[in-house]
Amino acid sequence: MRVRQIPLLLLAVLSCCPTVAVAETNGAAPWLADRGPGVATSLFGTYVEHGQLLVYPFYEYTLNRDNEYKPAELGFGLDQDFRAKRTEHEALLFFAYGFREGLALEVESALWTTATQEKAPEDPSAMPAKLTESGFGDTQAELRFRLSPETASRPELFGAFEVTFPFQKDRKVIGTQDWEFVPALGLIKGTPWGTFTARASMSWVPADDEFVFGEWGLEYLKRLSPTYRWTMAVEAEQDEASFIGELQIRLAPNATLKLNEGVGLTSKAPDSAPEVGVLFSF
Fold first, then answer.
1. What single DSSP character describes residue 17?
2. pTM of this prediction?
3. How many angstroms separate the Cα of 202 from the Cα of each of 180, 205, 207, 221?
4. What is the C-alpha separation between 26 and 15, in angstroms, rounded?
5. Closest Cα partner for 194 from 12, 10, 14, 7?
6. Dihedral through CA 197, CA 236, CA 99, CA 259, nearest 10?
């Protein structure tokens, strides 16, 4: 496993800046000081309350200098793994709504995606030197729910169920070609030093007819002031692991700037995945 260098400048900025909370601190429950009483969404350090609507337009760039691919999966016959550069640009839109206390629905969609997979020098297939696709990308809906509330001595237990839609059946480089169902569980505990979250999921693709261990993550969130929060996480799926750092800056009572950077910790993970967007709450 090759460990990539984590950008020290980003960590230095994050460690000296505060966080923006989507919800205000609940004075009667000090363990909620970093996050407020909302349900955890799939966005880092972001929670949605009963009756609240979150809207998050954002842009993400992904660079993987040695992405693993099979020419056969891209329509070029050879069933062998190769590694070569892949880049991706995505304009995405995220919604979340709290239907009631402890229950929320979220939808995330890549409204526009452009991805390019380059060909490895040792690849003898008929694949071109660069294979590019553009268009409507991944779309998923997710139900988020609190199973057990946090107390002074016990962490919150939450669950999620995600469905990814196969809107790109005829695509090879972008999007999702088969249905995917992802159940997940997680724990959240607020402390005087910050809020810690652990989560794990399973994944079922009906076309493969098997459950596999899916994504897992460890997250840390800290509110530093009414204006700033920061979060960092390790996120992994199979043999891909990344470190993510995010700074949140409250621009207005209902608008938060999110600056996010992910770097690969293993060779198969993307080298860099910066993200920027503004989260609006209503």
1. S
2. 0.87
3. 10, 10, 15, 24
4. 24
5. 14
6. 80
Highest CATH level, class, for 8-281:
mainly beta
Strands 255-264 and 47-48: unpaired
Largest CA distance in the chain: 65
20's CB contacts (< 8 A; 6+ apart) are 223, 227, 228, 229, 248, 249, 250, 256, 257
Is 271 within 8 Å of 248 (Cβ atoms)? no
Which residues are paired to 39 by β-bridges? 48
Report domain extents, the chain.
8-281
Determine contact, residues 116/128, Cβ cutoff 8 Å: no
The C-alpha atoms of residue 158 and residue 201 are separated, in whole angstroms, by 12
Model confidence over 164-180: pLDDT tens digits? Answer: 999 988 899 998 989 99
Rounded to whole angstroms, how far apart are CA atoms 282 and 268? Answer: 39
Specify the range with the lowest mean pLDDT, choosing from 20-34, 176-190, 237-251: 20-34
Q: How far apart are CA 150 and CA 159, in angstroms?
A: 14
Q: How far apart are CA 23 and CA 18, in angstroms?
A: 15
What per-residue confidence (pLDDT) applies to 14? Answer: 35
Conformational region of residue 166, where left means phi above 0, alpha means psi within -120 to 50, and beta covers everything else: beta
Evaluate whether 62 touches 271 at the Cβ level (below 8 Å): no
Q: By the 8 A CB rule, do 132 and 116 touch?
A: yes
Asked if the model's pLDDT at residue 13 lies above 60, the reply is no
